[in-house]
Amino acid sequence: MEYCIKNFSDLTGKEVYDICRLRSSVFVLEQKIVCEEELDGKDEVCRHLLVKTGDELLAYCRLVPKSHSGYNAATIGRVVVRKENRHQGLAMQMMKQAIKDIQETWQEKKIILSAQEYIVLLYAKLGFTVISEVYMEAGIAHVKMEYTM
Predict the structure, then answer these.
(1) What is the distance between the alpha carbons of residues 110 and 78, in angstroms, rounded to a whole number?
(2) What confidence score (pLDDT) does residue 139 get?
(3) Buried b or exposed e, range 114-135, using 16+ CB within 10 angstroms
(4) What is the enclosing helix (H) or strand (E) of 90?
């Protein structure tokens, strides 16, 4: 298993295709999020964390800098694990890598994310705490969570 973090400009064409394919298969097809909400124009300023085995993308998330997050903090978003690879600890390991990269690359002390309500326990195990009431985003219940170093 390989964990790879790249700026958008360093991604290969195949990696961009694989990311779009994985995100659309989960967010658009499984969760019925409309394409306009999924393609929000932020990818070019983000860092992208890919979890691969060989040439196969198993999981992904993007790291959004504070300047483009909409919060006074960096954020982690588009957290996705391929359906066949869920419940194997990939999300937990990927999130640990994401937190570490945000600390090392941007020297951020706080991370905020918008968590789908069903996965709050995963983020809580990583040290995130809920900081909002439940709200709807793209038709799915979410809460804001914060991680402080």
Answers:
(1) 18
(2) 83
(3) bbeeeebeebeeeebeeeeeee
(4) helix 90-106
